[in-house]
Amino acid sequence: MDKNFQEEFTQIIKFTPPLYKQRHQFVKDLVEKYKPKKVADLGCADCSLLRMLKYCSCIEVLAGLDICASVMKENMHMLSPLPVDYLQPSERSLTVTLHHGSVAHKDPCMLGFDLVTCIELIEHLEEPELKKFPEVVFGFMAPSIVVISTPNSEFNPLFPGVMLYRHPDHKFEWTQAQFQSWALETARCYDYSVEFTGVGQPPTGMEKAGFCTQIGVFVRKYPQTGESVQSEKPTEAVYKTVFKAVYPSLKDEKYLQNAVISEVIFTAQIIKHRLMSKHEEYDDDDPEGKSKFQPSMNCFSDYLGKLVVEKGMEPFVSGNEVYIPLATIFSFPKVNRLCGTFEKLCKLIAGKVTLSSDGSAVMFNIEDEDE
Ligand code: SAH
């Protein structure tokens, strides 16, 4: 590398967005591409990658592991569900767990993952730990994808002030050839393929230096199911769980029931309002009054009107009560999607919503405002 050219660049190297964000975005893109359900982040540090990944809707299980409990604990509260998660539970389930332990040790809680990320981890491992790492991650955990990032030492001369390593805790920093030879040998041993890429583009004219952060994406060549992994690899638990959050989800009957009841009452109220406003108009035209209301296309939204005409699911007023057929409510897309079947709707609202004596309609008193 030309020394003058090099010195010129050492003054101006600055990544936008910052390099750690580019690394995390790289993982997020990988998640969006492969849609893993279970993701483990090894060497998760302050949980910043986990915080980003919890918004990826394909992920149902998210785990972090670090040898330093205090760094994980600093921000782990940010992995807890927010009030909005309880107000509007998501359709997917999500469990986030943090473990305290070393990647040099096997623990059954790390089995069954689809994607394992090791972002800027390996260069922190002592030699004996680095030796055990491939057997733990590729041999024991054996996820379908592993992503490993590590500094590219060939880029270091472009950084002002980097004498030996970029961080005092780094035990080594590899050239591209060193990383690739380690990764290819690991992939060969454990039957994975590996492709190399990186983030942090070198400046024009310095392409030979390579990416500032080098990345290997390993893909398992053989199929394996979560169950067979669990049963074939009994081992004792050695990690300590330091955090666990189970997010409210509509997969949980309790949250589904609340959501369905709210949606049924909301839908029925809207239908009642439209019905009653038409009823009042009708009464004005007919001062003698009629106890029975005949709905017409004009008194509902197009959608409700269609239901009434095509399927005969008419809301009606009788005496002081308004009746909204459950079949009409079930036809509304959101209720339909939440319940799946009419039987499920009936089961979820039983005893929670006032129904007509035959159970076929939601019943409101005309006088009652928005119960
Ligand atoms: N992955 C983080 C940063 C990692 S820094 C990010 O993307 O920003 C490296 C982390 O690895 C540190 O938090 C350190 O405590 C952890 N670590 C070091 N040795 C470890 C080991 N043997 N097992 C698990 N974690 C380890």
From TrEMBL:
Q: Which reaction does it catalyse?
A: small RNA 3'-end nucleotide + S-adenosyl-L-methionine = small RNA 3'-end 2'-O-methylnucleotide + S-adenosyl-L-homocysteine + H(+)
Task: Tell me the keywords, alphabetical order.
Answer: Magnesium, Metal-binding, Methyltransferase, RNA-binding, RNA-mediated gene silencing, S-adenosyl-L-methionine, Transferase
Q: What is its EC number?
A: 2.1.1.386
Q: Which GO terms describe its cellular component?
A: cytoplasm; nucleus
EC main class here is transferase
Gene Ontology biological process terms in this record: piRNA processing; RNA methylation; siRNA processing
Residue ranges annotated as transmembrane are none
Top-level taxon = Eukaryota
User: Any keyword RNA-binding?
Assistant: yes
Q: Molecular function (GO) terms listed?
A: metal ion binding; RNA binding; small RNA 2'-O-methyltransferase activity
Q: Which cofactor does it need?
A: Mg(2+)
Q: Can you tell me which family this protein belongs to?
A: Belongs to the methyltransferase superfamily. HEN1 family.
| Record protein name field | Small RNA 2'-O-methyltransferase
